Amino acid sequence: MKRLALCLTATALALFALAPAAKADFGLKGLEVAFLDSLGAPADQAGSHPHAWDTTLALETRFDSGLGFEVPDGSAKTIRVSAPPGLIANPTTTARCTTLEFLDEVCPVGSQVGVTDVTYSQPDITERSPVFSLAAPPGVAAKLGFFVADVVPVTIEGSVNPNPPYNILATLRYISQALPFYRAKTTIWGNPADPSHDPDRGGPAGIPERAFLTLPRSCSGQPLNTGFLTDSWQRPGATGPDGSPDLSDPNWLSESAGSPPVVNCAGLGFDPEVTAAPTTPNAQSPSGFDFSIDVDDPGLTDPDGSAESDIKKVLVTLPEGLSVNPSSADGLGACSESQLAKESASSDFGEGCPAASKVAEVEVQTPLLEETLGGSVFLATPFENPFDTLLAGYLVIKSPERGVAVKLAGKIEADPNTGQLSASFDENPQLPFSALDVRFKIGNRAPLITPSTCGVYEIETELHPWSGNPPILETDTFTIDHGPDGGACRAGDPGKAANSADAASLPLSPLFDAGTLSPIAKAFSPLLARVSRPDGSQILKGLNLDLPQGLTGKLAGVATCPQSSLDAATSKSGQAELANPSCPAQSQVGTVDVGAGAGPTPFHAKGTAYLAGPYKGAPISVAVITPAVAGPFDLGVVLVKAAAQVDSKTAQIHVQSDPLPHILQGIPLQVRSVHVNTDRPDFTLNPTSCDPMSLDGTIFGSPGAAAVSSRFQLSDCTRLAFKPRMTLRLKGPTKRSGHPALTIALRPRAGDANIASVSVALPRSEFLENAHIRTVCTRPDFAADRCPAAAIYGEASVTTPLLDYPLTGHAYLRSSDNLLPDLVTDFRGPAHQPIKLETAGRTDSIKGGIRTTIDFVPDAPFTKALVRLQGANKGLLVNSRDICARTYRATVRYTAHNGDTYRERPKMVAKCPKRRRGGKRRGHKRGAKQSAGTLRGAAR
Question: What is the pTM of this model?
Answer without folding.
Answer: 0.87
